[in-house]
Amino acid sequence: MPHYPELHVxxxxxxxxxxxxxxxxxxxxxxxxxxxxxEKQRTARECMDWVxxxxxxxxxxxxxxxxxADVASASNxxxxxxxxxxxxxxxARQVLKDxxxxxxxxxxxxxxxxxxRNGADYLLYGHIFPSGSKPGVPPRGTNELIKLTDLVSVPxxxxxxxxxxxxxxxxxxxxxxxxxxxxxxxxxxxxxAALAYRExxxxxxxxxx
Length: 209
Prior knowledge:
Elements: E1 6-10, H1 17-30, E2 34-37, H2 44-54, E3 63-66, H3 69-75, E4 79-82, H4 89-92, E5 101-106, H5 109-117, E6 122-125, H6 143-151, E7 156-159, H7 164-172, E8 177-180, H8 182-185, H9 190-208
Parallel strand pairs: 1-2, 1-8, 2-3, 3-4, 4-5, 5-6, 6-7, 7-8
């Protein structure tokens, strides 16, 4: 994975393909690094169609498919992202190609260590701050995140309630990047929203040099 802070955008499961195509193109123009297709209600066939369509507006190696190692392998996209109910990373590796990434969502140090032992290439940790997508669920904050990033040998991406103003705090905790849902997918001006996150990450990178 790159050595600069990454900006991952995750689809929200509520938009049509046409809306996501427009969103992805604008987010890419604003500085998005990777788009996660997180569409739990869609079939493998539909997810494959989404990757094919999205490959016309952003490089296929910028696309990560959630929970569908089969679709990720068949489409030759950047890789697959796994949830707690998905295949284990070492099981998904039997389906994916060697150059493809395997990500894993984790919520604790124990889960993170297990995911790394099982072959995850990167981790997604959250939710860090209060998030509209997790109403009533207490945020995890950055204290455990700092310990987690010190312990694991793979990049960690922070997720949950991250605004541009808070992006630096997440990177300072040891994360290799941030993941954003509604802050970009629901924005009236997606390009401007993505650019605000990109500029916040770039400011942190310049300050850290």
